[in-house]
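Project channel, design review

CF: Before we commit to the Marinobacter nauticus constructs, I'd like one complete example in the thread so the newer folks can see what an input/output pair looks like. Taking D-2-hydroxyglutarate dehydrogenase.
RD: sounds good, go ahead.
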Amino acid sequence: MSSEQIIASLKELVATPENPGKVLTDPADLDNYGKDWTKIYPPKPLAIVLPKTTEQVQALVKFANENQVALVPSGGRTGLSAGAVAANGEVVVAFDNMNQILDFNASDRTVRCQAGVVTEQLQTFAEENGLYYPVDFASAGSSQLGGNLSTNAGGIKVIRWGMSRDWVAGLKVVTGKGDVLDLNKDLAKNNTGYDLRHLFIGAEGTLGFITEATMKLTRKPDDLTVLVLGLNDLTNTMDVLQAFQKKLDLTAYEFFSHQAMGHVLAHGQVQAPFETEAPYYALLEFEAVSDQVMDDAMALFEQCVEEGWVLDGVISQSETQAQNLWQLRERISESIAPRIPYKNDISVVVSKVPGFLQEIDNVVTEHYPDFEIIWFGHIGDGNLHLNILKPEDMAKEDFFEKCQQVNKWVFEIVERYQGSVSAEHGVGMTKKPYLQYTRSEAEIAYLRGIKQVFDPNNIMNPGKIFD
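CF: and here is what came back for D-2-hydroxyglutarate dehydrogenase:
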C-alpha cells in the first residue's frame, strides 16, 4: 500500500461514530509524537493515530499485520532510551485520548484506568479517595500509565513501595497478533500457570499494547518528613543508610553530588539546604508518626555526625519545607537539560554502590577530563544516574559519539558488578547495543522467542530492545 492509502485506511479504522479517534499528519504533530526525551534519533513517523477504545487499537493491530505496517506506542513521551521514537516511517499509536479512570473499588482498593491516564491524575484520584498511589517520579505530571508499565518505571519511592509492576492487579492488552487478553482479572491469588501480565510489564510495547490497567492503591502515609544530609565521603551513603534503616522505615533514600545541586541552585528557585558544602548529599524521607520517631531520627543524625559520616543536615518542619527540600533532587534533570546531557541509568545491588560508582567516575574522568559529570539517583535501591554534560563548544554529534565510547568502559564495569545497563528507563534503541552486558546469550534467545510468539510479524515497536 502507498502512504496515502495507509493513512486513509487508518482514518477509517478509528472513525467509529460513538468514540471517533484521530489521525494526524501535520509536520508539527509528526515531530511531537514521533519522539521522546532523547535527542539522538530524529523522528520520522508516517502518521499519528489517537484511538479512543481497545477495539480501535485491536483494529489497528490487525490492519498492521495484514499490511506489514510497523506500530510504535506513545504515552507521555518522557522516556530516556528512545523506546517511543518512530524514526523509520512507522505509525505512532498515541494513547493521549484513552485517558479515563473507568472504575474504582474501595473494598479492593483498586482503580481501573485506560493507558493514557497521567501518573499525577492517578495519584490525585487516589488522594481524593483517601488512598495513595506510591509510584512517583519527576515526570509524574506528564508520563502516562501505559508507558510507565511498559518500562516498569520505578522512581523515588522504590525503597519502600517497589516498582510499577508491584502495583498491577490486572491488565487488558492487545497482542501483536491482534488478540485482546484480560490478564489476571485483578485477582490477588491466581496460580494457574504463567502470569502473562508480567511479560507485558517492561516489554516496551514489543509484545503488544497495554490499553487498560487495574492498579492497586494503599493507605496514605502520615507526616512525611524529609532530612537532607551533607556527606563527608561517597562511602558514607551506605553507612548512613544502614544506620537509619535499623530504626526507621524509609520511604525514600536519594543521592546527588555537589555538582548536581550546583546546577539546581544556579536556577535561583531553590536555596541551599545549609551553609556547609559537602561533596555528596543524601535525602531521606520517613513517616514521622510520633515524637519517638522524631527522637530516633535526631539521635541517628547525631550518631552520623559523631562518626564523621555527616557534615551537616536539615530536617523539614512542615509539609511545605519538605516539598522545598525535595526540589533539590527533583529539579536536577530540568536544570541540566540545556547542556544536552548523555544519560546512563545503571544499577547494582545496594551494598556494591560506593565502589561501583567510584570506579565509573574514575574511568570517565580519566578519559574525558573536560566533561562535567553529574551523579544523582535512587541510591537506596542501587539505581544511579550518570549524566555527562556536553561542552558548549562541542557539536552534538561529536559529543554523542564520544559518549558511546565511554559506554563500553562503563558497561564493562556494570557487567563485572553483575548490574544492569538500564535500571528503570528501558532498553529502547539507546541501550540496545549493550544488552549483552546484563543479559546472557541464552536469555536474549528466550526473549526473542517470546517476541515471536506474541508478534510473529514484527510489527510491534520493531527495533526496540533487540533487532
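RD: helpful, thanks. The mean pLDDT is 95.
CF: The chain has 15 helices and 18 strands.
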